[in-house]
Each structure stands twice: as C-alpha cells, then as structure tokens.
Amino acid sequence: MSVWSNLSGMSALIRLPRLPRLSAQSLRLFPAILSVPFAIVDFDKTVPLTSVVHLDGAHAVIKKQTHVQEIAGKAWYVVNTSKWKDVPSFVRGSGLMSEYVEGKFAVMQLDDAAAERLSGELHSSGMACGVLTRLSNATVNMAPAVTPVPLRPVDTEIAAVTAMAGAIDANKIKAIIDEMSQITTRFHSTPTGISVSDWLVGKYRDLAAGRSDIEISKYDHTAMNSRQASVVVRITGTKFPEEILITGSHIDSVNWEDGTKLRSPGVDDNASGTATNLEVFRVLMANGAKFERTVEIHGYAAEEIGLVGSLHMSNDYKAANKRVIAMVQQDMNLYKEPGTPDKIWFVEENTDDGFNNLLGLLVDKYVKIAWGKGSLTAGSSDHASWRRRGYATSFPFEHPQDHNPHIHTADDTTANANAFTQSAAFGKLGLAYLAHFGGLR
Q1: Any catalytic annotation for residue 303?
Q2: pTM, full prediction
Q3: Percentage of the chain surpassing pLDDT 70?
Q4: Which position among 116, 269, 342, 349 bears the catalytic label?
Q5: Do 172 and 37 fall within a single domain?
Q6: Is 304 annotated as catalytic?
Q7: Crossing angle of helices 170-181/272-286, nearest 10°?
Q8: 340 lies in which domain range?
Q9: Which of 72, 264, 365, 391 has its CA 20 to 30 A from that of 141?
Q10: Residues 287-311: what's their mean pLDDT?
C-alpha cells in the first residue's frame, strides 16, 4: 500500500461548488518559479474540468498548460504534508516546489532519487503508508462512478461458485507469499524488483495450461521512468469481450526504514494481495471457468513510488476508450490483531459505496465472515488511479484503522502477519466478484 489520496466523486459541472476562499497563509506561490506547469486553486473559481489533475477536499491541482512536458528522470508529485503546519525543511529541500496548502499538501517536482529519498524520510517521520501521488497530463474524472451491474444477481447463490470458493486454499496462498518474501527486495528499480514480473508471468502461464482464450503479458513502464513492468492476465469474454472486469494487486515492495536496496520481504504489502489473486486464478483454471465479460488480473509495478504502474495503465485504458466495468484492488489482507476474528473491511476513500455494498452481500453469501466499511485517510493503493479515470472501484482491506504496523520495513514478515485464513477469505470474495459481475458460464 502507498500514496495518500482523497479524490472526490463529484458531478461533472463546469462551475464547482462555492467554498470558503483560501487565506494567504493557506496558499503560497514561490515567486522565483512562476513558470511551473501546475497550480493549486480553491473551488470558488470557475475551473475547466480539462485542467484538474488532483482533488483534495476544497482544493484542486490544475494544469496551467494544455500539455505538461515530461522530463526524463523527473516528475511532478502531490506530497502529503498534513502532519505539519508548515512544510518541513527536509521536504522543501527535496526539489522544486510550486505551491502548498497549509497542513495539507505541496506540489513539487522531484527527480527519481529525491522521490525515493523523500518517501523514506516521510515514512520515518511517522506518515502512515506513503505520501506521494504522481501527477500526469491526465485529468481527474469528477463525475460519480456508475455502480457496476452484475450479470448474475448477487442475491442468488451459484452452486459452482460455492464449490470453487471452498477450494480456495490458505496453504497455497502461504506458499506463494513465502516464495515472494524470499526475494531480497521487489523495489521497482532493483534487479530483483525488475525480474519479479517475469517470475509472476511464469506462475500464471504454468496455471493457464495453454488455454487459447487467455493472454499473459507484461506492461512496459519505461515511459514513466520505471524498469519494472506490470503483469496483465486477460481471459477474453465469450459474450461481451469489450466489457472488462479488473482485479489488481501491486507486485513491488519497499524498505523505507533501512534503504530501498536492502531486505524488503513485503509479506503483507503486498505479497498477500498478489498471492490471493494468483490463488483465485488457480481455482478458476482448475474448474475450466469462462466468463461472458473479459476478466483481467493485474500485477502493478512501482506502486510504492506514486502508483506508477496503475496510473500509466488507467490513463492508457481511458485514452483507448476501453470499457472498464469495475476494478477491485487486493492490497494487504494478511494482518489482524491477535485473538480477533477474520474480517473484510471496504475502504471508503476513492471507492464506490454502492459497489462496496454489493460485494458485502457476496461476503455474506460465500465467505460468511463479518465485513464493514472504514476510512483509510493516510493511505491508498492502485484503485485510486482507476477512480481518477472515472471507473467504479473497491478496495477490500484488513482493518483500515489498525493495519499492519510493520509494512515498509524488513519486519513485514509472516512472523508479524500470518492471518492466512483471512487472506483466503479475500480470495473467496475475489472469486465471487468475478463470477457474478463477469457472468460465470
């Protein structure tokens, strides 16, 4: 998990809601760098919707130019500074700063090394799950997401889904997590981080057993300054192939505490979500499952440095007018407080409430554990990239207010996160989601 973000689901009106103006203390422009391509505005102004690239409550980051030139090795970020009234010197000294909102966020240009270093320093200072949101030319879709319609009603139990959900194996999830955690680090710029995409592609190809309706590929992100590729597994739909369901996880890990080249097992963040999706695929293949809609399983690259893989992919999908019906992110499901029962929480930020409620009904029907909804204001994941592009998303998660305290360190191991039956519960939900919304044949 990474990146703090809080995008609003707002109606697509040219005139934005009137809210109090920012004071001079709240909005500062550094006069030496007036030519920067992004600016922060408040919502009492008329803002072209084609210019809004980030939303946070009463504030928007807008493009001041039609097209923002990409500079190799550098990118613009929203940096969460909500812990401080003023921007700390270690943040200010990391790169070019255009503006900031007091006690909220700053807009900065960082080179790759500075982004990596700053993420680690912010984590060490007590910020919870990463703090960078990478900006791009793609604007935020301000319209509310359309709650997806399942092809199989969620109030009707499907016997085949019940049987497949029962086949989700916590021990197999554990085996994949153990294997992933043995990789020294999966940080996107390291040799082992770059090669993890090939490792995962091999796992999926072994399970696919040569089915002609399945394509397994890597998604290149060198244009986004990341040599780590994402992984895409595509099961072509039999009736509505142009309609796409996505289930995702991120494949990178990070150790902000000791250094990004050092040991970063990333058991909960996010071997757990990746292993869960792989187990869902194993069960689907063992049962010869096919769907009316196209199903895609994504393993996202470079999530920990600004949702890079999912940002790139979601922008490309939107530009290509691909019909993404829904997206579910699996990221951190292996931790719970000792002695507490397994439970699935649905994160409220950057998700569709109606979609969460429909998935909750599937939890009741096939998983039969408690579920709830909660706020994760200090963290986010790849679903936020898809929500920015206007797609319906859901983010099932471990307890959002009491999640794993060991992530982003060398201690994110199974000694500290080992709720494998809970991970299996997330797998059952993931399988039921694909079956009902994808139209299991």
Answers
A1: yes
A2: 0.89
A3: 90
A4: 269
A5: no
A6: yes
A7: 130
A8: 159-438
A9: 72
A10: 96
